[in-house]
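new request in #modeling-help
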Amino acid sequence: MTHATMVHHTSMGLDNRKMAFWAFIGSECLLFGSLISTYLVYKGKSVVGPYPHDILNIPLTSGSTFDLLMSSLMMVLALAAVQRGDMKWGKIWLFSTALLGLVFLGSQVMEFTEFVHKGLTISTNLFGCTFFVLTGTHGAHVAVGVLWLLTLWVRALQGKLGPANATTVEITGLYWHFVDVVWIVIFTVVYLIQ
Amino acid sequence: MKRAAALAAPAAPATHVATGLKSWLTTTDHKRIGLLYFWTAFAFFLIGGLEALVIRAQLAQPNGRLVSAETFNQLFTMHGITMLFLALMPLSSAFFNYIIPLQIGARDVAFPRLNAFSYWALVMGGLLLNASWLVGPLFHAGRLSVAPDGGWFGYANLTERQFSPGPNIDFYQLSVQILGISSLAAGFNFIVTILNLRAPGMTMMRLPVFAWMTLVTQFIVITAFPVLTVALLFLMFDRLFGAHFYLPGAGATPILWQHLFWIFGHPEVYILILPAMGVVSEVLPTFARKPLFGYAVVVYSGILIGLMGWGVWSHHMFAVGLGPVADSVFAATTMLIAIPTGVKIFNWIATLWGGDIRGTTALHFAVGFIAMFIIGGLSGVSHASPPADLQQTDTYYVVAHFHYVLFGGTVLGLFAGVYYWWPKMTGRLLNETLGKWHFWLMLIGMNLTFFPMHFIGLLGMPRRVYTYAPELGVGGLNLVSTVGAFLIAVAILVFVYNVWRSRTRGTIAPNDPWGGATLEWSIPSPPPPYNFSVIPTVTHRLARWRTERHEPMEDPPALPPAPIHVPGGSWWPMITALGLPVMAVAALTHTLWPAFVGAAILLFAIYRWAFEPFEV
């Protein structure tokens, strides 16, 4: 820890990892920006069905959107608990965040399976291409986040995660909230504005 | 060189503690990674150069028969990708790595292991790409090479499975994807390093211009590369999973690829040129013994270039027919971006004006950069006008333009950096007489090669066609161009000999052979693993020069007052990078298990990396 305290001074006063992560999020905005733009450019250009209004299940997705929003709340509570050194609740909230992430992924798997049964695959039409790649890329991000949260949870169970690692949890939270915000945009663009 | 010899201090004591293969494979020292970048990039520069020589030999005469059309397509595609992603970008990275922490007064970059990962991902991407030259039999291709053959910008829908059934385009999309990951990781690392690891007193407006240009470049990298990632992702889904992002039959438009590619591709041009501009902005003041003229304006115009670089991409697409409104807007923005570039050129010339000029090789290259970049810039502005561009697009005129910018600009600029920082990086000076031979041969060679291409193009010879008929009347000009290309090769051989010779016979470099103003010259050449025995405090921009208001800073003492902890190496960055090409094998061979093996390697290595004891 002696060296750690030595280098924790930074020119901008912001933790190195946190700054790198903000830069990463900036970069990710361009990634999702390109995916969402492509979705919009190809909207209504499919030459065969099924079309979005034939197939999108708004009630199911509203539920999973609410689930993901609640997971962000759990994430906030997890960080607050870790920061104040309350590892009992820290563990509970970290696990709850991961669990809600898993529920979201589960409902995405259900949705994808249902679409395939109804005849929409990635090679059916442009809606299939853009829909599956956009929401799939987002789902992959959620999966990485779940893995990350579960790793932190296991570390906490082992007693290796405490207030000293609050920055790590905070960065995990940055990622999680970002992925959540991206979903709000996707939900609006893909599901609500048909 | 007499001056340097007179200044020569006693040889610095041996600094690198660990030697041997393992210490290089696991190194996290920015200086060693910088050297690895340099040698890797130089090796790929030679490979890309050889490809160019074969291209020129084929085109030396009408109806050339040296290579087939198929091989020719692979050659120009690989030449482009190799030079951009494997030679010039990593050569810039070599200087980012070696010089930036020294210039800002830091002990290393912000994330040393991520830095090692960037390097190894570059190696993996480069090896994967170049493996395509040799693995044809594995794909039953009926020939040795299955190298990418769709041009470096791989226009859709030529790259789709139905038109390119072989693995060629898969090698392209997978290796460029890996190279993108390498660049992105380095981007985050250097942004944090430059913003956060500056020595006390090194405010943003005291940063050396090279550090500023690096910062702007990295911001472009982290915003431009994700767009390429998406473009390649779509291509991958089209080719492997039957999607049709670029297939017109399904209602899609291949123009989407062009937009996504050039939204990345034009900023990429600035990723390639801004570091060279930064190098020149360091070399000129040192050898003119004058502060850079209009430091703030040079910095701001660099930032402006970085921003405006986002608004010009469609000038690569005038021939598509985007309509008068789009064409006019992009013509206007393209003409506008010439302004901050021109501002820089005037600043460099004004820096030389009235200076106490020393005609070193580094200065020769820097001045050569200015002259050649002006020619490239002027032909560039001529494409900004859509009617003119329609005559020039896809002809050798365009080839002439971007070689003046990338060879006359980036390559000459980076060679200025090589001669300038070589003594800092190796402890030996390069020979100046050989350096001048290198410079003049290269300058004459490049003008012989690329100047005739303006006429070849305007006379109607299209680029990327493997031969031409004698009736076109461009045989003589093409022969001149080929002779020039081989002259460049001779110049490179002179450089290689100079480097080889410097190992034992180069003058031993003192801390500061040139009288530089920036911090890297205040410490031994090559620097000890910890760089600065005591982290310096910076009081003014030209830290080591006497100015009207400031005394020069004191150099740090030869030995640190207390032992300095230097972080040890790690295997995990390299092993993490190894997971990437293994996953790529799955996509190349259409088998699933390598994807799982690669993902397992990746995941395992990332976890070991995350939890290994490593102090920075």
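bot summary: Chain B has a mean pLDDT of 93.
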